């Protein structure tokens, strides 16, 4: 589960340009915690497709997955213009793949078995990218624990 989550996070971060390195690190660590917490009871190595829809990370008609938004908020980032309009990432045991757009024939695998796979080359420049530098009034970009993330989410 850890390798699959890390692969998905690295793929998501490939869309995030013009942010400070400490913001990206905080984002990655926060998203890692959120995804592990979400997937913990929905991961079955013996039946990888069970729960696949639940584990998907989606951006649909420009609506960004809430876990990406939470991780970005906690890292002091505005990611509202960083992703293409339609992107879905499936994070399954021993398999991570994605589809951009609505063409189901163009699903690309980025993790298979126990190793990363070099996907077809995709030019992120074709999507709307954020040109801001990600400033925020949040003073701390220290990675959170599950309990502090939950508390901070409830407060906001």
TrEMBL record:
<dbReference type="InterPro" id="IPR036054">
    <property type="entry name" value="BTG-like_sf"/>
</dbReference>
<protein>
    <submittedName>
        <fullName>BTG-domain-containing protein</fullName>
    </submittedName>
</protein>
<feature type="region of interest" description="Disordered">
    <location>
        <begin position="119"/>
        <end position="156"/>
    </location>
</feature>
<feature type="domain" description="Anti-proliferative protein">
    <location>
        <begin position="1"/>
        <end position="103"/>
    </location>
</feature>
<comment type="similarity">
    <text>Belongs to the BTG family.</text>
</comment>
<dbReference type="GO" id="GO:0005634">
    <property type="term" value="C:nucleus"/>
</dbReference>
<dbReference type="Pfam" id="PF07742">
    <property type="entry name" value="BTG"/>
</dbReference>
<dbReference type="InterPro" id="IPR002087">
    <property type="entry name" value="Anti_prolifrtn"/>
</dbReference>
<dbReference type="GO" id="GO:0005737">
    <property type="term" value="C:cytoplasm"/>
</dbReference>
<dbReference type="InterPro" id="IPR033332">
    <property type="entry name" value="BTG"/>
</dbReference>
